Amino acid sequence: MNVTDIRFPWRDERRRMRPGEVRSDSLDTKIDQAVRLVMTQDPSPQAYPAVLDAVRKAASARSEPETALPWVVALSASIATLLLAAVALQTFGPAVEQVQVGIGSRFLIQLSDTRFAHWINETESLFGYAGFLFLHTFGLAIVVGISIAVDLRLLGFAPRVPISSVRTLFPPMWVGFWMSAVSGAILFMADATRKAENPLFEIKLALVALGVMVMALIYRQIAAMDRHQTDTSSVRGRLLAIASLLIWLGAIAAGRLVAYV
Amino acid sequence: LPTDVLEGPSKPRVTDDELVERSLGGDSLAFDELVRRHAAAVYRAALAALRSPPDAEDVMQETFVLAFQKLRLFRHEASFKTWLLTIAWRRALRKRAGPTFRVKRLMAHDADLPATISSHEPSAEQALIAGELYRDVRRLIRTLPARLRDPLLLAASGRFSHEELSDILGIPTGTVKWRVSEARRLLRLKLARLGHS
User: Fold this and answer.
1) What is residue B3's predicted lDDT score, i.e. its pLDDT?
2) How far is CA B191 from the centre of its chain?
3) How far is CA A196 from CA A105, A136, A190, A204, in A?
4) Do A40 and B120 touch (CB under 8 A)?
5) Which residues in chain B touch residue A21, judged by CB atoms under 8 angstroms apart?
6) Which of A93, A140, B24, B72 can bridge A164 by disulfide, Cβ–Cβ 3.0-4.6 Å?
7) What are the b/e assignments for B16-46, b being 16+ CB within 10 Å?
8) Backbone angles phi, psi at B47, to 5 degrees
9) CA A82 from centre of chain
10) Interface predicted TM-score of the whole assembly (ipTM), two decimals
């Protein structure tokens, strides 16, 4: 294509001349041609394969979280099973209690006797027990809040919200989860022996592990819906959503009751 | 280049919207085709904002990666090209406002718009313009305020209609026309002062 063949969008515009201004059509043409030459550049031939490579890498990176899902599910299920088995044995088997006294209690006593655990318990600073309790509650609020929003979407609420948008809520949910998990571990250190004796605490942990497992399954369900471009969830999706709602309800109730039992 | 081929007399049979649908269905070649169709337009939009070919290529790559990741959010309210160019323009402006880019420009103030002329242009045109006037125009473009320079360069790239420019820049079509005209007037005045007539 010849440069002179291209009509500039402003070529035919009539413009009012300003006082003292001289219009030169030949100069205008030259300006047009010069500006046009400045801008009629194309990307280098190497740029195309680089773009395609970057897009392919992005595509493979997008599928990576899904490959980790089976591990998350297996780990969460194992933790939940172990904790529930411990609660059952603690409640019904006196022999296990003796083993706990021998091995578990010594570790828990050492844990709550560390300088850090003492500082958490005794400091009046806002960054001590109160601060970690705040982080724990805030993290849990993020996890449960987002989970409930996702569950409601799967149950058919907010149908105009595209399912692909729901997927973007998972990264902040994981941030909330880790915030809650780390601060929870620190709070446990501060009162390890008493909390470990409380079966409600183990039930709470088991329910949280189950909640994570169900959320991982829900993520896989949403990813499948996204792939098939459907915004309506299947029966499995709805069942998972109901299970998630009940599990988080149980986890919150158990968490609150730990303080009073 | 592929975009030039596709803009020729034989129009592509598969529309952008169809390619987007195919890409969403898992056809990776469909997105490759979208890249080939729009790479030059995206590059020129980024070049208009950044006036640096390597940075424009970076933005082009970032734009296509982002578009691929957000393809499901494309609602067909505008054309795919406009959607893509809006992403490219925002990314280019963000880069232009960043401290790294500003420092880089200060350090290499002469490494502005490409000094070489595209090999697609006929040699007669090159001979006509590649002299003093071309160098002065390149230099004077830098002195224009961004709000006038951006529409001028985008319009001169020959890839966008007034409506597309209006969507990309987020201003009314009439304002786009006025700004292009005003930029050209300022260039003419400055060139006249340098002795070009």
Assistant:
1) 34
2) 24
3) 9, 18, 12, 12
4) yes
5) 185, 189
6) B72
7) beebbebbbeeeeebbbbbbbbbbbbbbbbb
8) -65, -40
9) 25
10) 0.73
